[in-house]
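User: Can you model how adenosine-5'-diphosphate sits in this protein?
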Amino acid sequence: MNILMAASECVPFVKVGGLADVVGALPKYLKKAGHDIRIILPKYQSIDGKKYNLQTLPYKLQTQVGKDTESFRLKYCLLQDNIRVYFIENMRFFNRSGVYGTDGIDYSDNKERFIFFQKAILESVKALMFRPDIIHCHDWQLGLIPAYLRTNLKNDGFFWNTSSVFTIHNIAYQGQFGSDTVKIAGFSWEDFTSDKLEYYNTVNFMKCGIKLSDAVSTVSPTYAKEIKEFNGMGMESVLNLRQDDIYGILNGIDYDYWNPATDKNIKANYSKDNIQGKAICKADLQKLCGFEIKKDVYLLGCVSRLDEQKGFDIIIDAFYKLNNADIQFVVLGSGNSEIKRKLQEAVKKMPKKVAAFFDYNESLAHKIYAGCDAYMMPSKFEPCGLSQMIALAYGTAPIVNRTGGLSDTITYYNHFTKHGNGFMFNITYGENFVQTILKSEKIFKDKKNWNVLIQNAFKSNFSWDKSSVEYEKMYNITVLNKQNENIFTHS
Ligand code: ADP
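Assistant: Here's the modeled complex, given as structure tokens:
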């Protein structure tokens, strides 16, 4: 099968959140399964052409964004396993320091940037003579490709056999813009109807992706259910109309990359069979944070976008409430400036108990996953969440709110049955994060139970082997449906 993975982020080139991990990992498994899988991304300024040995392909391409003709070049490199990765290079839209914006504020021309990107993708596959069976579109930034295939390109022979699959990584970000988008994106007003582009007199890229793709997926079974029922941020009815075509496929993590036995970022390597190095990592992290270096103190960490979604109000509240407990806290995050200010305030008041780092720092992230005893993830909602899975891989117990993918991956540790890989509370039922931390601390102090819990964490396995097969099944069904559809429309 020819598959084009179209996204705005991909590890190792550019990462803002978990989307990048998924787009970087899934193709490797699809390639192993024998598919011709290629990735296409914007060429952001931060992607180092020399480091990745990017080659410029000989095409001079252009597309229309509103009244402007935008020229672009295609760059190219080979990722591990010989996966071809293309980059769309355009100075106006992508030669700037941020991905979606700076200092937590979106660029004002994101609409034009991602209209351009999507139109450029559709031009590029033609130039490359790569006829995809599937264009796998990720999140709102790619929500218009399904719309182009169903409208402007529906009679374009090149794309007759091309289906689109749309994956929702986070329905809270929808890309909703004024009705002038119809013209800027080059659609016809005839298609500005509620069964196609129109959404409350706007164009909402997320809605277009859900409504007009051939199949929709999201990143965990529980989130797939939740967004149809109550967590769909206004998209519930749009999703319910596609009830039968929505797949909930749990993300995996790359266990070659997130591996404490080989990780070069951490002070000492360790594994489930020899966990001694974890204590060295803890001491190293305590030193980095300026904390007392003591192995019996309960050390909790968090690596995250600074965003309300992630429950920072609850986390910061816990710092103050647990100020007298024998607990240390460390946060690494970037994003919302108000959350940053509150974290700084807490650090100032409790420097021996709370540490916070405010950049995007891959190496420090690894040190936190390895050095902490437990990992805080009290997200208000969580489509899948990779951080809790990474924590598990490092033998660090997640403490999570029962929502979305966190429900699908974490089970409460029961010290009678010895089952469970972390701790859970339920905000909706008024359950309390602070109490859950204190309960988990009790287990931490009971070394026998804690060691069982840590072993359970190590044993939890969320590899892509299983999830990639689910994606393949979805692709196969989609391609078959397309063939049937074509029998009626093009014969
Ligand atoms: P989301 O996609 O909502 O941001 P996930 O838990 O799915 O949340 O994925 C977050 C990913 O981004 C994890 O791999 C996490 O380690 C990483 N990450 C988030 N913030 C930072 C940061 N400031 N520095 C390094 N890595 C980060």
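A couple of observations from the model: The longest strand covers residues 68-79. The chain has a mean pLDDT of 96.
User: Helpful, thanks.
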